[in-house]
Amino acid sequence: MDRIFTKFASVISFASGQPFAFVLAVGTIVVWAVTGPLFAYSDTWQLVINTGTTIVTFLMVFLIQNSTNRDAAAMQAKLDELIRAVAKARGEFIGIEHLSEKEVEDIRRALEKEAGSEKDKAEAHETLEHLLRRR
Fold this sequence. Notes:
With 135 residues, the protein is mostly helical. The chain has 2 domains: 2-94; 99-135. Helices cover 79% and strands 0% of the residues. The protein has 5 helices and no strands. Helix 1 (2-16) crosses helix 3. 0% of the residues are buried. The mean pLDDT is 88.
């Protein structure tokens, strides 16, 4: 069951991110709007779009979250492997994604402090801004 759901979630998540899916959604809204006068803008006419969009949104949340969780776990495994494989990397960083948000933020601050002085950061920030302006 897990493999079937994973495959289904992957296919739907990929398809929903394609331009055709957006065009299909816009087309659906246009058809619904154009049929408004035909149905005298009735409550049923409004209920159709409200119900349809609610159901699609509700189901898509679960499918996209499944794909996001899987992608994040795969990326974390790859990063853990890189940490493990690089001689100077610190193995203590493997698994920090399981810490609290505050603990991860404390580690991030310590790493930034370790990485250099405020002057170095300011120079790096200026360089980054310069590069971004060139684009």
